[in-house]
Automatic annotation (TrEMBL):
It comes from Roseateles toxinivorans. This is Cell division ATP-binding protein FtsE. Residues 2-242 form the ABC transporter domain. One of its GO terms (biological process) is amino acid transport. PROSITE patterns: ABC_TRANSPORTER_1, ABC_TRANSPORTER_2. GO terms for molecular function: ATP binding; ATP hydrolysis activity.
Length: 351
């Protein structure tokens, strides 16, 4: 659906070049919710703005629906902007216009519908975002969440294939954030709309995204299914972002050992479960079957886009009495298809 190929962007600041995007390649599939996360200045906004050419890449190609958008003329660019809607952090509403007029505005610009058709479309969108009662109000009379609902309705007015959300929930409180995320998910499912959202919050990624890309200093450092990236982060920056938001996958072994001090000696394992496996009484089954004892040192249980997951760091006890215990445990985990990592061997063995 969207293919970003070797895209770079360099800005000139006081005659000095600054690389905002450095050779980014990735694909966004039709109908998915794709998240882009990274620290401030990582290049998220620049990347998302290249997808509707609000920012033109310095080099590279961007293919949207089979078409190289970097080669479009101005008429082609106008058509592109209708296929790719955008929602902004600070809503960008027209203050002098009512809710209904704000939503009608892009339809008027499009110039393809009669007045009656525009009325019908505005009505449909008001219902979709739950603002039918506020149609005659002005933005100043609305809450932040309601303003963003207007922003979403406006972005959907011309029936785009793709919705870009630039920190769409960053200005909202946690409860309102949840309701806007639910609305985006509902729209994604009902309209089969591809959504690309950027955020600096892992919770937003976990709640709504199918796949995620992590940017750092203009580079793409990691990308994959959200569950994989959360449970098995490959890059130190990803682990740090997860740790900051107290998410699974964050455990850094050194700090864990330092926290636990001398009280743990056995091998440490991180066990990760998804879906069905997350609902089984695994630890008690293992202790009964293998006669071993596991001490849970850290754990997270939750949902990733509705899928149950769990991640536990456990210490295997009494390996000094039975050195075969670790191999037995690893075999049992493999048989059950439980993903695990041996974080380290017993401290005595390492010393
Ligand atoms: N129009 C511009 N002119 C000059 N430099 C820019 C421009 N836009 C972005 N940059 C620079 O490009 C880099 C990436 O910025 P960008 O806004 O894409 O990051 P971001 O990840 O979205 O950050 P934030 O989360 O703070 O919005 C930064 O160093 C920024 O200063």
């Amino acid at each position: 659906m969207i293919r970003i190929s070797k895209v770079s962007k360099t800005f000139q600041i006081n005659g000095e070049p600054r690389t905002a995007l450095d050779n980014i390649s990735l694909e966004i599939r039709a109908g998915e919710v794709f998240g882009i996360i990274g620290r401030s200045g990582a290049g998220k906004s620049t990347l998302v703005r290249t997808l509707n050419l609000l920012e033109r890449p310095s080099s590279g190609q961007i293919i949207v629906g089979g078409q190289d958008i970097t080669a479009l003329d101005s008429a082609g660019l106008q058509r592109l902007r209708r296929r790719v809607g955008m929602v902004f952090q600070h809503f960008n509403l027209l203050q002098a216009k009512t809710v209904a007029e704000n939503i009608r505005f892009p339809l008027k610009l499009g110039g393809e519908l009669s007045a009656a058709q525009m009325d019908a479309r505005v009505e449909e969108l008001l219902q979709l975002v739950g603002l039918a009662e506020q149609r005659h109000q002005h933005p100043a009379q609305l809450s932040g969440g309601q303003k963003q609902r207007v922003g979403i309705a406006r972005a959907l007015a011309n029936q785009p294939d793709v919705l870009l959300c630039d920190e769409a929930t960053s200005a909202l409180d946690p409860e309102t954030t949840q309701s806007i995320l639910r609305l985006l998910l509902d729209i994604n499912r009902r309209l089969q709309l591809t959504i690309v959202l950027i955020t600096h919050e892992m919770d937003v990624i976990r709640a709504v995204c199918d796949r995620v890309a992590i940017l750092e200093r203009g580079q793409l450092i990691e990308t994959g299914e959200v569950a994989d990236v959360f449970l098995f982060p490959q890059h130190a920056v990803t682990r740090a972002l997860l740790a900051e938001s107290h998410q699974a996958g964050a455990t850094d072994l050194q700090s864990l050992r330092a926290e636990l001090g001398a009280s743990t000696h056995g091998p440490l394992l991180r066990l990760s479960f998804l879906d069905e496996a997350a609902t089984q009484p695994l630890l008690s089954q293992l202790s009964l079957e293998l006669h071993l004892q596991l001490n849970v040192l850290q754990g997270t249980i939750g949902r990733i886009k509705g899928r149950p997951f769990g991640q536990l760091v456990v210490e295997l006890l009494h390996t000094e009495q039975d050195p075969t215990l670790l191999a037995k445990l690893q075999q049992a985990l493999r048989q059950r298809d439980i993903r695990f990592e041996l974080l380290d061997e017993p401290l005595e063995a390492a010393a």
